[in-house]
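Hi C.,

You asked whether I'd gotten around to modeling the 282-residue construct. I have! Everything is below, sequence then structure, no commentary in between.
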Amino acid sequence: MKPLSTSLLLLSLLASASAELPFKKKPQEFQTRVPGEVAHTLQEGSAVQRNDLALELGIYAPNPSSGAVKSNSPCVDFSHIDQREVKLRADAENALLIADSSVCDSTYLVIFDKAPKSEWRHVQTIRLAARIGRPEITYAELIQPGVSEILVYHETTSETGTYSQQNFVVLKLLHDRVEVVLDTTQRSEITLTNHPPSETANLRQTQTSTFNVMKAAPNSAAQFRVLEKEVITDNQVTINRYRIWTWDPGLERFRPAPYDGADVRRVPAPLKKPVAPKPDPK
């Protein structure tokens, strides 16, 4: 018969082994050899395959009760998935899946980075709201030649019936994370129905911005600046304003400043609109 002290020691060791460790094991990174197969599985896989893959990639449906609360429900129904290859960082290869889901009112950006041994490592998944309309996505080499930023036009950030807003957003891969480096209103509309009974017309204010690129000054931290022309219409009155967005390497963000519009006529054409997605091969 074992001594009591030995039995107590064994029980203590077993309890310690089953206790929660003071640190969590880092989850295994999702990797694939062919990003196109990921897109195929998300569209054509079985219900279990699509559910498991959406959880692996962090593709979640929006929370129906609150947009501020993160959902844990995977989005598994996609109307279209487009695959593009783009260099988002120097000395890197990247693949981007753009997955549209009308069921989830979302467009998802699933970003991969080329890893050793021909593997593609999942970097991040970004959800863009698409209940009112699909955001337009394209690329531009604003800061460094050969390295692209992701440009998002018409991202709907608010829609209440009397107020709507869409934003222009620039995303950049920084330190293994995709960060928002420019975010500004592209179009907004406010309708005021609280007016005297004698007035039949609603008060309406709109703001629309267009964006062009301008060559940066010599020795600047980036090769281009972004010129924003803002047109504000308040009933019958229209006002034009300009601001210039310049890359700040310390903040790793574009910073706005007022602009007098003196060189507007010399500005190149607006930033490129997105290329129509290629049809999925059948």
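If it helps when you're writing up: The two ends are 72 Å apart (CA to CA).

Thanks,
B.
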